[in-house]
Amino acid sequence: MTIVQGRVRDQRTATPARRERVLPPLRIGPFEVDTPVVLAPMAGITNPGFRRLCREQGAGYYVCEMITARGLVEKNPLTFRMIAFDADERPRSMQLYGVDPESMRRAARMVVERDLADHIDMNFGCPVPKVTRRGGGAALPFKRKLFERIVRETVEGAGDRPVTVKMRIGIDDDHHTYLDAARIAVDAGAVAVALHARTASQRYSGAADWSAIARLREAVPSHVPVLGNGDIFSAQDALDMVARTGCDGVVVGRGCLGRPWLFGDLEAAFAGRELPAPPDLGQVASTLRRHAVLLCEHMGDHKGIRDVRKHIAWYLKGFPVGPELRRSLGMVESIDHLDELLSELDPHEPFPAEADGPRGRQGSPGRVVLPEHWLDDPDDLAVPFGADVEHSGG
């Protein structure tokens, strides 16, 4: 096994055969990366430690956890602790959330004045009830004029820093918003749009409707990148999405949980190279340990080792690890303790087929919680009372 800057590679695939590049580099404003892949911001996941681990596997855009405009404007200490990037992390991508145009403009201006990030992504895709009941996330694009004002104010506040928009198909099957929202966002200055091809009512259940990504690609000007999101669990999934939709890149969320090497697979696939061999259990354990070390460096030993516990089940999914060892790993107390427990694994155990496919919580579809009378008038410009949340990362 060879580990180079955290990348796990099998010696047999060190010099893979070359094929034609699948897609050109992905450009977001002035920034360009060879691999057209974006790490989706995930609360409690995409901190600097996890982002570094993923960046060590392959190129792409790596977005930090969601930051709320109100938390930023009111200088909330938790919010500012979350805005952390490695010295070599470029571009520094931040996802910004808010429902008040003025707060979003002020927050974007702070990003510029304090040089907090190089790229702002706007969250209009969150389906979580505590967000949609305030009119935020996937609920907001239904309010066309308010949505347009929020995007425009953010773009103006961001100055020359690129602003992108991520959204869902709509609230539910009776309220699709994505085509109008994408046109509005581009007209307001967004330089790229990303679509999670589910409605808010689906949450993460069922299958993503990739045909919606294809319709979106047809609906916006060809020079504006369209990114597809939903059910990317392997490099082949990404290639299939591009082939079926014509999208310019993919956004990866749950698919990389416990599998940061997915970004290395994606880099190889889009460059037209053969994929690395799947890691055996010894290689997975090495990556898990690297993840734990990075979290401890970022959070401190106590918080870092506790945080890695939630990742362990994802890393070991499908491997024949006994229940007692799994429980012990779920209560690991230190790096030394982790080393002791990982030494009990069979390093030669091959990567199991059952580890492929969906990861993380699927949930079940359900009614989207909205503010009272939210669906009465799509042109209403009023900001919902108490809509902006102060704390970030939710």
UniProtKB/TrEMBL annotation:
Q: Which NCBIfam families match?
A: nifR3_yhdG
Please list the reactions this protein catalyses. Answer: a 5,6-dihydrouridine in tRNA + NADP(+) = a uridine in tRNA + NADPH + H(+); a 5,6-dihydrouridine in tRNA + NAD(+) = a uridine in tRNA + NADH + H(+)
Q: Where is this region: Disordered?
A: 347-373
Q: What is this protein identified as?
A: tRNA-dihydrouridine synthase
- Supply the alphabetized keyword list: Flavoprotein, FMN, NADP, Oxidoreductase, RNA-binding, tRNA processing, tRNA-binding
Enzyme Commission number: 1.3.1.-
Say what the protein does.
Catalyzes the synthesis of 5,6-dihydrouridine (D), a modified base found in the D-loop of most tRNAs, via the reduction of the C5-C6 double bond in target uridines.
Q: Where is the composition biased (Basic and acidic residues)?
A: 347-359
| CDD domains, sorted | DUS_like_FMN (cd02801)
